[in-house]
Amino acid sequence: MCIFLSVLRLAPAALKLELEEKLFGQHLATEVILKALTGFKNNKNPKKPLTLSLHGWAGTGKNFVSQIVAEHLHSKGLRSNFVHLFVSTLHFPHEQQIKLYQDQLQGWIRGNVSTCASSVFIFDEMDKLHPGVIDAIKPFLDYYEQVDGVSYRKAIFIFLSNAGGDLITKIALDFWRAGRKREDIQLKDLEPVLSVGVFNNKHSGLWHSGLIDRNLIDYFIPFLPLEYRHVKMCVRAEMRARGSAIDEDIVTRVADEMTFFPKSEKIYSDKGCKTVQSRLDFH
After folding, report:
1. 113 burial class (0-12, 13-18, 19+ CB within 10 angstroms)?
2. What was the pLDDT predicted at 6?
C-alpha cells in the first residue's frame, strides 16, 4: 500500500540530524533539501511535483543524500516499490533509441504515479543521459492539475549529475582564495550559475532542456568539493558504520592516500569520499 508519509510525521528534526551527522561539508545541500522537502510535504495541495537537481563531482554525497531522502519518504527507501531509480548508462544507453526511451519513460512514470501519487523518481548520471530523453517527462513536472487523468503533483523527481562540478569548484576556490569560509557560500552564489551552465552544457542531459526553460526545476543544489578534513570525517563515519573503534592513525593514513587538486594548492579531494570504503579495507 502506498502511504504518503509526511515529513512532519517523520519529524524534520530527524531528517536534519541525519543529514548533519552523515553528510560532510555540504551545508547548502543540507539546508536546501530540508527546506524543500519540509515545505513540499506541509503543502496539502502542491501546484506541481517537487523537482530537485543535485550537482557536484563524484564522491561529494549526491547518491548518499538521495538514499537518505528516499528512506524518509518511504520506509523501505530505495527498496520501496514506490521509489524508482534510473541510471542513464544502464536504462538509456543507446542514442539511436531516444524516442523509444521517451515512450517507455512516460509509460513507466504514468503507471507508477497512478498506483502511488507520492512516487519518488531518481535519475542518476544525468550528465551521461542523451539530450532530449528527459524532456519526455516535462508535462508531468509542469503546473497541470492532471495529465490524461493522472495528477503528478505529489510526486518527487530528483536528478543527480556531475555536470556543473567545475562551476561549483571555481566558486568554492574563489571563496577559499579570498580567505572566506566555505560555510559563507550561499545558494544565490551558485544556483543562477548552475542553471545556466547546465542548460548550455552539451554533456549535462539537461542541455537546452525544456525543464530549465520552463523553470520546472525547483532547486539546483550544489555539492561542494570535499577538503582533507571532510575526507577524514568520512573515514571515521565508515569506521563507526563497521563497528570499529576510531583509530586516528588509520584515519590519517587513508586520507593521506587520496589525491587532491588544484595541483598548486591541493585543497579538494578529486574523488571526494568515493574510495574511502575500499581504501579502509587495506588497513
Report:
1. buried
2. 39
Known binder of ligand: residue 165? no
The residue type of 180 is R
Cα separation, 134 vs 102, in Å, equals 7
Tens digit of pLDDT for each residue in 172-189? 999 999 999 999 999 999
Specify the number of domains making up the chain.
2
Residue 201 is predicted with a pLDDT of 85
Among candidate residues 79, 149, 137, 72, the one with its CA nearest the CA of residue 107: 137
Which CATH number does the domain housing residue 211 bear?
Answer: 3.40.50.300
- Shared domain for 240 and 168, answered yes or no, is no
> Annotated binding residue at 58?
yes
Give residue 250's domain range: 228-281
**What are 240's three cell numbers?**
563507526
- Are 215 and 102 members of one domain? yes
Do 56 and 169 fall within a single domain? yes
User: Is 25 annotated among the ligand-binding residues?
Assistant: no
* Residues 112, 35 within the same domain: yes
* Percent helix, strand and coil across the chain, each to the nearest 5: 50, 10, 35
Q: Whole-angstrom distance between the N-terminal and C-terminal Cα of the chain?
A: 45
63 known ligand binder: yes
Identify which has the larger pLDDT, 215 or 177.
Answer: 177
Which uninterrupted H or E stretch holds 228? helix 228-241
- Say if residue 42 carries a ligand binding annotation: no
Q: Is 59 annotated as contributing to ligand binding?
A: yes
* Whole-model pTM over 0.90: yes
Cα 134 to Cα 198: distance, rounded to the nearest angstrom: 14
**For the segment 75-124, what is each residue's pLDDT rounded down to a tens digit?**
899 999 999 999 999 999 999 999 999 999 999 999 999 999 999 999 99
